Every structure is written in structure tokens, then in C-alpha cells.
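Expect chain and fold; see below:
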Amino acid sequence: MLPDADDLPEILLDLAVPHEDINELVALRSLLSCDSAAMRLLEECVEGLVRNMGEIGGAAPWPDDRIAELFTGRAEGRADGASAALGRYFAVYVYVAALSRVRAHHHALGVPPEVSRRTLADVGRHMALHRRRHGQGGVQAPWWLALHFHGELFQLGRLQFQRARVREQAAGPLTATGLASDADAMCLSVHIPDFHGPLSPAACDRSLALALDFFARHIPGERYTAGVCHSWLLDPQLKRYLGADSNIVRFQERFRIAPEAGEPADTQPVQFVFGNPDLPVAELPRRTTVERAVGDHLRAGGHWYIGHGWFPLPPV
């Protein structure tokens, strides 16, 4: 299921794995392949990942606890450095082992190679996020990448679009506005990845146009009634700190935002702006307008919330 050590670097580069991680991943491959228990778990993870390929919610849950128990020695209260590193990198080997089946699924849908490549290259971005937060190699939120490798999410320009059902995303608001007749109606969930440049109106317009064409062309059996987004970037309080010409404010204005605030989610902007949700609020930098907005609001005793927004999609 795993490529040879000589072939592994090129495959890792196709997934945008940072160069600083490649040598360690190649070196750890032999440790993994000699571990029968680890290889059984790898095979199980791959099968769970590609199970019911393309079916929304069809992949098996990511087994974080089992991976941690196997590689960090939590069950015995001990761990060695190599095993701990292998545990942090284990998800990469799962993605590599599943890659041929994922590409075959994309090929069957007629997905252009560049879209497939850019979608799966989110592996490298999540490794960069992990290193920024923890200072060592690994994969941030490996469960999230299951959406990419299961055919549920695609990178199309600046934004990512996830095929979803209304009941999972915004059943109440969309039904109330008439955009969704029932909870099984389809929508596109919009995600804003970091490390992809400005969130400019032009980039978002292009991304949305790409998405409408892509899904109509490659998954023609589905009809999406709305675009939805759940993000701290849709918290209306940001307008107090950012100008009307701010990319974030103009992104918000694409959506009809639900009025309810919900529970505070202060760690969300801290994580996405500064890289670590556990940073002390008093020490958050003030280098940019967004950094000052996030930190000053929290230091003044305020809270940030996840905004829930939607907009109608034109019929295709």
C-alpha cells in the first residue's frame, strides 16, 4: 500500500508536503512497514477513508484515540521519540496509501488534474499549520482532510467548497427563507483556507464561478440551493474594527447572516490569526489591523462568535 522509499519524496511533493518534513517521513517509513500492528491500522484507516467514495458522510470516523494509543504509548504511560514522531505523521502515510484510489475517483468524475492536485495539496498546508502551532512535524486536524480524500471537498480557486446536506449546515435559516424545501436538500459549504493570499472580492468571485461550473460539470446529479459558511469571519462585530473596504467585511456582505450569536468562540480567531488558540490574550501581537481587532476586542472583555451565513445559488 505504501510506495518505496525512493518513490515517496516525489509523491510527498505532489501533496505539497514541506521539504523540511520529507527526510523524516522517508526515514520513518521503514519503522512503519516493520510494525505489523501499525500496518493493520494503516490499512483499516485507508479502507475507512475510501469507503463509499464520494458519498457525503460515508468515510469512517478518524481514529485519533487508537492512533495515539498505538504510537505514543499512552496505554503504558511511555513513549519513545521515533514512535511519537510516527504518530504525528501517521495521517500522511494514510493519505499516501489512499492516493491512487482517490485519484481514480477523481478521474472517473472527470475532475481536471490541476483541481485534484490543488485539493489534495491541502495536506501540506495542514502540516505547515501543525508546525506553526507546535514547532514540530505533524498534521493539523487530520480528520478534516478526510473530506478531501473522500471526494466531498474541492479547492476551487481561493476557496474550498464542500458538498453537504442542509440538515448538517443550516436547516433552520434556509428552510425559513425558502431556499431549502427539506433537510435533505443540498448546499455548498464554503471554507476559507489560510496561506492562500488575500480574500479579495475578485478572488472570491472567480472561486464561486469556478465552483458553479465545476459541480455542474463533474457532479451533475446534485443541485445546490445555497452557499453556506460557518466562521468567525462572519461575526458582525468585525465591522467595528475593519473598514468598509476590508476584504473580510466585503466577504461578510455576500451572506445573509443569522442574528443569533450562540456560545462565545474566542479561541477560533486566536487560532486562525495567530496560529495557536492557547496564546495568552494579553500577549497577542498588534502588527496588523486584524490582529489588533481580535486582540483588542478580547482584552476589552469582549467575545468573538461563529457567524452563520448563507446566500442563494443560481439554478444550473
About this structure: Residues 81-109 form the longest helix (29 residues). The longest strand covers residues 224-231.
